[in-house]
Structure formats: C-alpha cells, structure tokens
Amino acid sequence: MRCPGCAPTSSTASSVCRSRWSFRRADGPEVWSVRFEGDDIRLTEHTGPAAPDEPCDVELTATASDLMLFRWQRLPADRLASVTGNRAVLDRYFTLVPPV
Residue 66, SS3? Predict the structure, then answer.
C-alpha cells in the first residue's frame, strides 16, 4: 500500500509504504523512532540528549502523556508542542497502527 506523503526508496518499491516517525518527549530525554516499511513496523527507543541518527519524515514533540493521548486518538496533532516535517503522513498513522 502506498501512503500519501511517503516517498518510495526505489522505483521497484513504489507500492510500498516507507516512512519514519519520531516521537520526542518534551518532559524527558526519550525519543522513539517508528519506521514503517511495507508490513514491517520497527520501533527504536533513544535515551539521552542525542537525536536519532536517521532522518524522519515527521517528528512530534510533546509531553509523554500528550504523546500517548495522540496515539490513542484523544488529542489531535495540532495540540502537541510541535510537529515538524511532512504533515501529509499524519493522516496515515492510524491506518498503519490502529489504536488497540
């Protein structure tokens, strides 16, 4: 499946969703990176002041509680502390990872 705003990494992968998300905790040192590649979802936790090494398509920064509220579709992205990068992939997040 191809998501809006996700750029294919090669001409043969044009039908595969590939995007990277960063969830940065504003009230602590943690940063979580989520990478979508087709049906695979990879989660990496980073602690400390260093940002993740790989670039991301979109980064959401908020308190840990607000990030969880966003994740559970209880808080829209425009109410988070900041959203940077490609906002076109925001609409696709809950299709890729539906709330439990």
Answer: helix
Residue in this structure with the two tokens 């299709």, named with its chain if needed: 95
Q: Would 10 be classed as within a structural domain?
A: no
Cross-strand pairs, 100: none
Name the token pair of 54. Answer: 């790989």
Predicted confidence (pLDDT) per residue in 50-88, tens digit: 656 668 899 999 999 999 999 888 999 999 999 999 988
Are the C-beta atoms of residues 69 and 81 closer than 8 Å to each other? no
The two structure tokens encoding residue 41: 């979802």
Q: Within a domain: residue 5?
A: no
CATH number, domain containing residue 23 = 3.30.1050.10
